[in-house]
Amino acid sequence: MRIPVRIWFLGVMILSAAVIALPAGCESAQQAEIEVVVVPPPPPEPQLTSAGDVHLTLFGEFPDRQRVPFHARAASPMKQHTFETEGADFDVDISPDGKYLVFASTRHSAQPDLYLKTVDGRAVTQLTDDPAGDVQPCFSPDGQYVAFASHRSGNWDLWIVGLQGGRATQITHSPQHEVHPSFSPDGRQLAYCLFNQRTETWELWVLSLAHPESKKMIGLGLFPRWSPKSDSIVYQKARERGGRWFSIWRVDLRNGEPGFPVELAASSEMALIQPSWSPDGAWITYGTAQLGTGDSVSEASGGETMTRGDIWVIRADGSSAMQLTDSGVNFGSVWGPDGRIYFTSRQNGCENIWSVRPLERSTDELTAAAPAQGPSTASGVVAQQPAPKIGS
Known about the structure:
mainly beta, single chain, four-stranded antiparallel β-sheet
């Protein structure tokens, strides 16, 4: 039986209504008891993209499982950027100049905070230390600010903090849950998703930073990401039939008004999640989430199906789908100016930030080699050819 796909967001996990689960780090930390605070009434919140347990994060249907460690292999060499062993590093974003990573982490507390570090350095700067959870950071186009989602006001709202110091500023104040901010190319607007409690659906909204009360709904979906080069927004949305897998969509804004949404990639066999743009706006990276069986299923899981996550890229028109990783649990990918794709990977039971550079092949050769079937088709067939040359 195919399991409906749902991504839930924070601290306390929800099974159809409302139970929240905190993100975890290594296997050794899972046995520790963590005190959780449930905010009544507990709304259906999306789980942290990090995933203390990837089963809960991607599919929302597997409580009380122990983590199964994976040893991932990439289509090209992977590079590790964070090395935490007592917590999880996730929700990574790259500064426009390619020098810094901003990410959420539970390395110092059960609730995630935001951290900043150079791409190849070891020292980390803690940007937030509120007792509530701070997640989903996003750099402004000028690299001077970071927008993020926080529960510090009692429900999920959008906040902005300057990298030169000072207190964070609250941007949204509604009683609805608002998460996953993304800046427009000029830095004047934010795209985000809002949970409509009346209809129990996730909606896509855009607001003006100069006048946050001036906002507009542009569609339904989750995890929007604004193109750095145009008024195009990619996001994920679940179908309302069949397996209800998430697929990747794009909506183009014309004079602030949304056009017809375009489905770029879909599969009847796996969820396609968390899309993000390349710096030139020509490509999109996203994650896949699959259910499967095999010898690696532990006894603790009862021999049931397990999840797997891989990183993919496609052209902005949905063509030339290429797989960059071929095993393990990898998710939350974003493209850096250096041509590398950064993401969270679970290696040896720990979640840290890694990156991979697509193999160097010309786009003409890539197009000629692209198969007719891939994750962008209904068949869900996985393409195993090398990835394109993108970036420097």
